[in-house]
Amino acid sequence: MGTAERLAASEDGAATHSTVRQQQAQYRTLWIEEPAKRYRMPDPVRTSAVRSVIIIAVTLMLAMVAFFCTMAESWLAFPMVISSVVSTVVATWSAVDVLVTRQVWNQRYGVVSEPSSTARTLRRERRAARRQQRAAEREQERIRRRGGQAGQLTHP
Questions:
Q1: How confident is the model at residue 147 (pLDDT cuts 50, 70, 90)?
Q2: Cβ(80)–Cβ(68) under 8 Å?
Q3: Beta carbons of 115 and 93 less than 8 angstroms apart
Q4: Count H helices, E strands: the chain?
Q5: Disulfide-capable partner of 70 in 5, 35, 77, 88 (CB 3.0 to 4.6 Å)?
Q6: pLDDT band with cut points at 50, 70 and 90 for residue 128
Q7: Rounded to an integer, what distance in angstroms lies between the CA atom of residue 65 and that of residue 80?
Q8: Rounded Cα gap, residues 56 and 91, in angstroms
Q9: 12 φ, ψ (degrees, to nearest 5)
Q10: 84 CB-contact burial (10 Å; exposed 0-12 / middle 13-18 / buried 19+)
């Protein structure tokens, strides 16, 4: 008998088969999606990073081919060494390009202004002081419109 079936004896002695099913509440998925800890790179930065990885991979292959051509004393050794030196310069430039592109993007679009708690408190105090000043000005304007003086309780 399998684990999903059990043989149960009824009260009259007859054997019956019953199927034991697992509860669907215990169903587990293969993976649990968690929120990303780091946000996705912006498109220009990602583009320059991919370009840089491709250039660095080609540079490494050129360096490896130059090494093997040098070990084999092939006539291709000198041109391959020259091309690997040039591609090393280009690979360095592409890595710096990623850093520069990232910095430019952050300066243009990535600035998130989050005031500190002290700045927020100071701003609240200034706002409250401005509110009180405006209320006092409105009160003075209201008194002036009535033609009265401050402190005058009744009209003549």
A1: confident
A2: no
A3: no
A4: 3, 2
A5: 77
A6: very high
A7: 7
A8: 5
A9: -90, 5
A10: buried
